[in-house]
Fold this protein.
Amino acid sequence: MSVKAFKLVSAVEREMLMGDKNYINIECIECCGKNLYIGTNDCFIYHFLLDEKVSTAGKITFAATKQLHKYLGLKKPVSELKAASALTRLLVLCDNTITLVNMLNLEPVPTGARIKGAVTFTLNENPVSGDPFCVEVCIISVKRRTIQMFMVFEDRVQIVKEVFTPEQPCAVAVDGYYLCLALTTQYIILNYNTGVSQDLFPYCSDEKRPIVKRIGRQEFLLAGPGGLGMFATVDGISQRAPVHWSENVIGAALCFPYVVALDDEFITVHSMLDQQQKQTLPFKEGHILQDFEGKVIVATNKGVYILVPLPLEKQIQDLLAGHRVEEALVLAKGARRNIPKEKFQVMYKRILQQAGFIQFAQLQFLEAKELFR
């Protein structure tokens, strides 16, 4: 059963990025507040300012204004971008090297600080150092079966730890001291402080692209076997039922209470509350799906789009209008963490009342009585 949970809105049209240069492709994106950064296959970084506009009818559009672009001087694609806003730094991975550049003018830091030998990298969103002027970076090293942890400051980098893994790692997410790793044949949780590891479940990285995503404190979302989106905690257990994806999911993102997944033809939306698929949006040639501070962005090789969530109250009212009382109540309860307490209590009472009238009209008197109570 479908729910309209998101609308797909264009943010950056291909002409703004490449004009008539068809050979330019989008390789990676990063969004920090209103700042959108795009890395391309011809070694450029583009910086746009995103302005969200709401019409009187409530329609949301985005206007992207190009600030500047910068050539990194190599004949290699820019493969990853991550913003460290507290340091006003952008971490740029190109040709196995992470360079620190200024977020505003895209100039490299004068000290030339960089991390060499990185295949891919991620930031620790639950850092252990406690230093607000430092970000913790975890890289999969070009050295075989090696993960390295770094502390990155405004103008210098410092290696903290080197960890060896039982098989070659191909994807990683970090929470505190815990690494969630996709190895060649399985997913594992590894505490890089104690060296203790725990197997999660088997997975063949040769057949499919692994997905490892931190979705909250000590919890990860993984692409499991059989097209399942599996949840795992740092203790190696799952506190939620899996969601059923297609077999060839490329990327996943979280926008509570929804898990959004991208494959080669569709964007699918599943509820974390009841695991049901709620929405399907046709989207061809997509290759990036990421969430940034609650903003879900998808991209093809040529354009960038934003998935705008519809207000939860509107979604609940749509479910009630379709007499889908159970789903409406599940979504309403799940909305508690997104809405201030007083406002939530008023809203929830009204929803229970509406649901009661719907059950009453369907002659389900016992259920209606409970809801009215």
In short: The chain has two domains: 6-309, 318-372. The longest strand covers residues 60-71.
